[in-house]
Please model this.
Amino acid sequence: MNRVGIIGIGAYVPENIVTNRDLEKRVDTNDEWIRARTGIEERRIASDDIDTSHMAIKAAKEAIRDAGIEAEDIDLILVATATPDYSFPSVACLVQGALELQHAAAMDVGAACSGFVYGVVTGQQFVQSGTYKHVLVIGSEKFSKIVDWSDRNTSVLFGDGAGAVVLSTVSEERGILASDLGADGRGAYHLLVEKESNFVAMNGREVFKFAVRQMPESSMLVVDKAGLTKEDVHFLVPHQANMRIIDAARERLGLSKEKVSTTVKEHGNTSAASIPLALYTELQNGNIQDDDVIVMVGFGGGLTWGSICLRWGT
Ligand code: UT7
Model:
């Protein structure tokens, strides 16, 4: 069976920065509360003319360039998103059309904030089996369009953005070593888009409890499945929702603060885009090198979770 890894990565965030102070003017909140409870300092918000597909296309172009392949080499496009431009066609088809990837199959993956991890593990199966050579996996979200900007419970949390990777075969010792996907539909109504309003609604405390339990557990599980111990982990790239949840996962893995991505400060919670955006940022900052063992772990609506233990490099 082929070993599968990430051979290219790209990202995109809108230019417009919205700070906590900006939000103080819109709802009854304050910078101190947002920083202390979430770790968020600012987020990017897309303008009206930029939708989820536009951000996905920008991130995808960079990932394909970074992989050193041609766009027509892509066999399958998977877009993880909870905020598609339309209920159909899929964002994946919009990307396929815009990039003229004529022979690529295309579909969206619906697993909310865990969607990117679900997408990578799904794409891995096709490459591992030899069915496809190159799979483009994108996480792209425009949560700003489903946020009630008069609700302080949710409007301070989210941001817009996209990240993309190209999966392909890599050398035997590198790539995805182990993964874990899971769901608990009993918690489905803790985090959802309300039918009446079309706005995101959340039982924050329940989601928090679930995340603090599940993120560390799933992270530890993939390390174990990979035949490694937590001492072997160089870097943790968790879903960027809340600094306190990230800290819980970090402590369980026994990692120091420099060994965990905390882009939630600048991006807020970008749902399915958060892990590829964080991974991109850490690579840019030189925090992840070839042969480093990294753990990516997501959780979110569904409720869902997913983890990947991967040795970086091709
Ligand atoms: O991708 C997955 C998405 N979701 C998550 O990851 C969310 C997980 N949950 C959380 O991150 C946290 O539960 C929140 C950050 C959402 C909330 O933090 P918390 O420590 O659970 O606060 P809380 O909801 O218990 O609220 C505490 C107080 C409340 O006031 P009272 O009832 O104690 O008087 C809230 O009304 O804070 C109030 N509050 C705010 N105050 C200022 C809630 N939102 C705000 C706000 N500014 N934006």
Observations:
- The longest helix spans residues 204-225.
- The CA atoms of residues 32 and 56 lie 33 Å apart.
- The mean pLDDT is 97.
